[in-house]
Amino acid sequence: MGSINAAFYLITGALEADQSALDIVANNVANANTPGYTREVPNWRENIPVEIAGVSYGTGVTQTGSTSVRDRVLEERLSQQQQAQSGSSARLAALDSVQALFTPASGSSSSRAGDIGSDITGFFNSFASLEANPTDASLRSQVLATARLLAGDISNAATSLNAQATSLDQQVASITSQVNSLTAAVAQLNLQIAGSSPSGDAGSLEDERQLDLAKLSQLIGINQIRTENNGISVTTGSGEMLISEGNSYALSDGAVNGVTHFFVGNRDITAGLSGGGGQVGGLLTARDQDIPKVLGKLDELAYDLSTQVNALNNSGTDLNGNTGSGASPLYIFLEPTTVSGSAEKMSVVMSDPSLVAAAAAGQGTGDNANARALAALGNSLIVSGLTPTAFYSDFVTSLGATVSEVRIENTAQSASVTQLQTVRNALSNVNLNDEAAMMQQFERSFQAASQIFAILNRIMASAINLGVQTSVS
After folding, report:
1. pTM to 2 decimal places
2. Which residues contact 113 (CB under 8 A, 6 or more apart)?
3. 3-state secondary structure (DSSP) of residue 260
4. Which residue has the higher pLDDT, 288 or 364?
5. 111 pLDDT exceeds 50?
6. Sequence-ordered list of residues with C-beta below 8 angstroms from that of 423, at least 6 positions apart, any chain
7. Band of the pLDDT at 472, cuts 50, 70, 90?
């Protein structure tokens, strides 16, 4: 009887273990589409064998819970690539918008948005046309019309760039609350994990923490540091602490010189976040580096072109026989006082075509020497040692190269993220075919144990009835 009771105990344990394993498989299937869920596998532990007369007898196994199938190194590597890809995506989107400002509009010639290169050529060609008949009113009007077109397109481009910078600044500022919500959530999960699974897999709690960390890495560049009690500390890419086990340190933002800066406590960490990955890194790089660089080039073009054209026109004689003077200068463009801001402020201040100084100083109004000089200015090295058209062409080419470089970088990073996600999914995601096979295996094991249980039940009944065969319901 003792042996039969031992057999009942062993089979009962087998049934319980198989049922627990089936529950784990069922949970995997139920969560197959749950974001961040990591599939679980049952853990088995051999029971302590019994030794009788020098012979060891097994006492079966016990199902001791489940373990999530995860590779923490792979998870962290994926997080690093995701934050790099997120950063380059945000920067690329901003650069595409910038580049669009300098792409000539297709279709009707009445739409000249972004056609600054053609504007420059048209402006200096208008002086070449004026050479042939320096007293012609329509040709003089054409000079001012092309000047307005050039100044308007440069000013509009600069205004649009500043508007884009403002939009990026607003996007950056909106991220602060999202970051703080996620860091607080991860810190709280650290506490829960430390309380429930300080030395082992924490199952769904760890899934939830990893999902929050993945979302956080999409926003800012972070480093993850494993700590005691199965915890994680998180710093920014430049080392500022955001999460230390159960504590989170809030990110704050504030205006510095009119733009949003980020702080942890009293420390300004904006420079460390810029280019550090995540959406914030990409947006800050575009706001603080890319757009100012483009604006600087436009300002340089506007300043040099305006001052050079103004100086030469002011030195000539207009159709009224007047030359420029201190009180009444013959300026075509608003005379800039500094390079910075010249592009956005560029405008035509001359409204009377007769004030275009086609004649050289001291010559009659029918002279065209100054008109020739102004036309030649278009081929002179007046903008940083280059002609205006060459300077603009180099600037647009450089911008295009930057966009192409970031696009190639983003494509490579996206491919890396896809590859890592494929590897991670193969390891950690629920595969319904695999789960079906596991369920069939455990069901058969459960059925086999049930059959043995039934046999033992019949043996027990026969023993109780002194060997008389008795049916057992």
Report:
1. 0.84
2. 101, 104, 105, 153, 156
3. strand
4. 288
5. no
6. 74
7. low
